[in-house]
């Protein structure tokens, strides 16, 4: 076997990388777990964002947040290991792919937006928990979140064609 080159050649040459490339079914199965995890995560985020934007005002924001946060965190158990496994198959290709780097950047931006929301406007959620509109700042976070996650999904799909 020829040694893999590039800064991440060690990962490409690892047994995980070799297995991910060499097995007919491994990569597609792992990709399915990654996509299912993303569907759960993004579905949860979108449901929460739509609630903050004003849909289903009879559902308390806090109750919906607690419920969906659990699913979001559980989805990471699928997304992260599957993403690492897929990355190990062609790490040098991924790390030099601008779409992949954009996807990672957008994920960081979505995380910062969520942290900013929870550290800021969400602290006053008692005043807009049920029956009233969320403040403009909360709606801005929710709208930005929707845009970011749609862009992240788009980047994920574009990776297959770049």
Automatic annotation (TrEMBL):
Q: Per UniProt, which keywords does this protein have? A: Membrane, Transmembrane, Transmembrane helix
Give residue ranges for domain DUF6644: 10-161
Question: Could you list the residue ranges that cross the membrane?
Answer: 24-48, 68-88, 100-122, 142-160
The domain of life for this entry's organism is Bacteria
Entry-linked InterPro entries: DUF6644
Which named protein is this? DUF6644 domain-containing protein
